[in-house]
Amino acid sequence: MTWLANIGSVSFLLGALVSGLAALWIARSGAAERSDRWAAVAALALTANWCFAAASFGAEQPIVALTEVAKNLAWIYVLLRLFANDGRDETLRLVRPAAIVLALVESFQIVLVMLALRNANAPGAATLIFETSAILRALTVVGALVLLHNLYVGAALSSRRILRWNAAALAGMWAFSLNFYTLSYLTGEIPVELQAIRGLAAAIIAVPFAVGFNSNAAGLEFRPSRTLTFRSLSLLVIGAYFILMLLLANSLDMLRGDIRALTQVGLILAAGALALIWLPSQRVRGWLRVTAVKHLFKHRYDYRNEWIRFTNTIGRSGFDETTLQERAIKALADITDSPCGLLLLPEDDGALALGAQWNWPTADLPSSAMNSDLAAILEREALIIDFDEVRAGKEHHGELAHMPDWPFEELRVWAAVPLLHFDRLVGVVILARPAIERELDWEDFDLLGIVGRQLASYLAEQSGQAALSEASRFDEFNRRMAFVMHDIKNLSSQMSLLLRNAEKHADKPEFRKDMLVTLKNSADKLNLLLARLGRYGTGAREEMQHFDLAEISREVAARFEGSHPVRLARCEAVEVVGDREGLEQALVHLVQNAIDASEADIPVMIETFSNGISGQCQVIDNGKGMSPAFVRNGLFKPFVSSKEGGFGIGAYEAREIIRAMDGRLDVESREGLGTRFAVSLPLRSAKAIYSGPKDLIEETV
């Protein structure tokens, strides 16, 4: 059949050309991050080599058989490398033995080729070798299909979208081979019609396989079924295939000559015609897709598996040293296959600041990540923000006017999910864009919304437990301070009595004078401390007065002279209103913390100036710095300290003292760079204007 031989030669030449070009394209333009890239290049190159050898020498020659063995081994190795593409897929430890067995079975074909050459003149031996080769090849192909099935079923959703083109190409290649070798075994001879189009099949398969290495190929619509449905359908298809092949084999046995060949070609053409009708027709494909979704599964998410994974993530603690905030981010990120995320928590003024991060150490957010107006919209409307819609200018509840700038600059920011507990906003989770581009749909919004409420309850419960623990420790602290106050009061009384006796009985005037000065100063200090301790917890406020903020800064800097360099980088006279002594105590706390975080010879800087609204006193160091999580969750928490042996109450007391003066204490810190504490107090002039004309007149008088 000369015309079939000519078709076969052209077919194999086309297969060699297309496979070679596909290998070259993957090598030059394929996704560089794919670990199976060069394995695919080698497999396509060996396929091109096999096609070229078949076109040159004829498909039945031993040299061609050996090149086919090399090609098949390369494709088995590609399958093995596909398992290593995603950490969420089945582990190589379980797959590698099966792949090795398939490679050994395929390698046995070399022995069969040698035996065929040696027994070329023995018809019985040649038939046995042919049938053995066909059945071993069929078994190898079945094993490869089983591994390919397990690869796709065990892959994460994002990995399925990456692997689908490669998996489809490999499935087509091995399905054609299974058909070829099954017919060869059942009929006892090579089906020449299928042999003639093997090169064409290789060319057709090489194209989608190469497309799979394009980074944009995963963006097309593709919705795989659930695991159980997928496996059930696979078993049904495999069973139906073998039944059909048995029926065809029995039918072909009743045919002879050209009729049998025509039947074989007709089956191939019928399958191709069905594919050509189905693939281009969007209406047919849409109908099939809708029908499958309607009858095979109700929703895209497997809610049972999602809830089990969510519960395991939130309930896990201890061994990985992750906080509840980090686990909350991960629980939401796993739903959408987001690689990382952030948690924003509300500040005292209603704005949202960074509270925790998961797998996103490079996130650089301002101190106020979202203002109070945007937080109020999220709380009132339970709005899940799709930042792709925001960047496109689409809004739902007027949120665009309050949107910060950083989501427009950081394109990885994908969605914001509010965490609501009894309609109160306890946080917002920022999700990064998943590896596979897709849009949020109604099912995402529903699932993220309900999971966000569940997470909010966990965070609120943890906050309540922390508040109870803090109150308990404060109660113990107050009880201890009561004893301290009692002892100080007794000491003060004793020293006062000693002072009165010394005034009456001292003989030496100079000694008496020195003793009186010393005792009087000690008694005054103790009485002052006693008065201050007595006011803790009563809600009483110190009497406000106006003073120069620069003068306080100079006194604090002088206080540390000789122990650590403290420099006044900027010292402008600023009249503020507050408690002078309390402010000095707060600044001493802040400067001491800065000194503890700095090297011995690195100075701590103090800047004092006015911004027109308030007086500013900033304490700046170039020390170790603090993480955003510690600034948020530990810095101003009583009894929490980053210093060994620290009591953990200095920063908290400094903030409370400044707040009592209607002031504000802000902090900015970066690990390894340093920390800036900024104290803001109302200006004397601004305070008088705010208080009204009456107070202004009284202050002037």
UniProtKB/TrEMBL annotation:
It catalyses: ATP + protein L-histidine = ADP + protein N-phospho-L-histidine. InterPro entries: GAF, GAF-like_dom_sf, HATPase_C_sf, HATPase_dom, His_kinase_dom, Sig_transdc_His_kin-like_C, XrtA/PrsK. It is an enzyme of class 2 (transferase). Its EC number is 2.7.13.3. It holds the Pfam family HATPase_c. GO terms for biological process: phosphorelay signal transduction system. Keywords: ATP-binding, Kinase, Membrane, Nucleotide-binding, Phosphoprotein, Transferase, Transmembrane, Transmembrane helix, Two-component regulatory system. PROSITE patterns: HIS_KIN. Residues 483-685 form the Histidine kinase domain. The keyword Translocase does not apply. The chain crosses the membrane at residues 6-26, 38-57, 63-82, 94-115, 135-153, 165-184, 196-216, 228-249, 261-279. GO terms for molecular function: ATP binding; protein histidine kinase activity. The keyword Cell division does not apply. It comes from the Bacteria. This is histidine kinase. It comes from Qipengyuania nanhaisediminis.
